[in-house]
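Objective 1b: paired records.
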Amino acid sequence: MSFKWRLERLHIEKGVYFSPELPPRFSSWKDAFLHSWTKQNLWNAQLPSNTYEAEKDQFHISVSARFKPRDISSYIPSSSKRIDLPLHQRLAIIRMNRNITSQKEAFKILTQQGAWNSGFINDNIEPSNDEHVTQHTTSSIAGGVHSVDSKMNFAILVDNTKGLRKFEFDHVLPDTCSQENVYKTTTMPLVTDFINGIDVTCIVYGQTGSGKTYTMFGQHKHDYSHHDDLPHQYGILPRACSEIFQAIKYRTDNLKLTLTSEVYISYVEIYGNKVSDLLKAGALCGQNSASSQRYVYDGSLEVPVYSLEEVFLLLKLGDEQKRKAATAMNAHSSRAHSVFIIKLKQTQKESGIHCISHFLFADLGGSEQLKKSQPLGFKQEADAFDSKARVKEAVHINLGLLALKQCVESLRRKRHVPYGNSKLTLILSKGLGGKSKTSIIICGAQEECHGKETIAACKFGQICRGVTTTVSKNINMIESLLQDINNDIHECEKKIREHERWDTIEVNEYDDKGAIVNVKMNIVISGAENYRLELANLIKRKKELTGDVFDHDSSVEGFGNAYLYDMGAKVTVPSSC
């Protein structure tokens, strides 16, 4: 803890801020101190700070992924189109599952499974007596998310063109991750850079209904009045605002330097080619792209704030002005992009140094598929004019997202960045590229029916990270996927043993007149229904991967209520009268 104390002294004596809790990007307080030490001359105009300036000149982007908890109804087989795995992945799975090394033997098993016949069967391959390969199966599997590894920071999804795909991120947040941990992982490091004078941006990206707005703001119709003790459902934006004002108060009371801080808020919405001020009843900002950007950053839209409570009041005011509409995927879908901007102006009186930094929070409209989100005609409430407006909104959303993709890809390849292609990218340009730091949170749904949209969002994350996948990584991916499924099956069986119980229930028997003539006592299994549903899904996923057939053999019969999930035959338990 001595290095944590040194960080506190560095903050008090040199004005270099650091969060009171260790961010995940640092393995120890020593690493955090050595990182902050390079900024020791931040507020000293007479001494050079070459190391810090060199660090500032390097654009950095961090990409995290957050997947919504899987809906329990997704365990029921979906009618979505199945996906065929490529030959090399199917053979690799067979070798690992059967613990064999021969490619020829794996291909023989694959042929006998009926997954690679192509209209003929090789007469030279003799039938096998192996009970695992005697029945023909399909080589298609369900789409969507198949594995999420928050320790190794990757997710495995099924693509309809490339089969199993591994997407690696800087951070992968488990579906049980709290809002507080999401903030600490993705946004808290940006607050440190922001207070130390760097422009930063936090972007949430994903399809409609994937949890972007919840990640950014928190629960719908959130009450921002209780700011002394942040509720657990608060999103990253209110948490960042809370830390910023706590830091300002601490710096005012404890720093040996004389620092003055001024905070300004602006809140805009980008709808097509229009930029609206959400803090002024949706008034338009400028008449063209250049004037809109100038209006946002020249102070015309800024509102000075002096407390966290004032920030929350403005946040609530802006939320009420947002364009929202019900779609088939989200009852409160944001129909435009919104950007919440915090401007911090700091002045060090002794040295005369002025520092202005911006924190941009971009809550992007959902990446749309018109057929799926149904922005028109939802609940049969929209007339023809409103239907056209909904389609237009979806098109504007997608055009802005496309421009953002192009800018991020150009930044990665160090080419000319086409900020002017969209008003969204023009406004984000101050915090995207150059000396800024950026955190992108990819939000996705795990269900099979959302597989295409989740893969598209993950591809955008890979573009941001500049990551390519190699063949050797694919082999490790398949091995990891099988191991994860086996571990999940073992854990699920353990939970079933812990929660399942035998219950006795009364069953009434009635005569023709509806009168009770007899009461029977039936024995039923209960207490682990959801875990059994999950187990059925896991077993089916593994069978799909390995190409094996799930047959109703005696080892499954009588296994609780498994027959309800198409796992074995029903066994009648004798009842006592």
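Objective 1b, second protein:
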Amino acid sequence: MFRGVLASCLLLAASAHAESSLQEKFNLKYRDFLAQSSQSLLPLPQLPVADWKKLRELRVLKLVYTEPDRFYNNKTYTFTMYQDADNGSYFLDAKGGFWGMDELVYGPINGADLP
């Protein structure tokens, strides 16, 4: 029983490290777009919000990471990265802006486009 608990803890720790590593690598790769002086949007495919809402109802999406207070495109957003459990593609949901009313969704993002 102890081995099972230990194995579960190690698996969770490895998963958390991989998620934070993906977040750090994403921020590093797209740092020019995420800089305070940048007004450029990320060079990723955009998904209309209505399509995003339908997709969330139909697919199983795994939360990869959430990063609050990310300054992007002259506004403050919360970045949330999801991974599709079926095909492994990623989606980035950026919510925030003026009174939290802006939402930008990027995806599907191929794992090769991520660091």
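The radius of gyration is 16 Å. Residues 2-18 have pLDDT under 50 and may be disordered.
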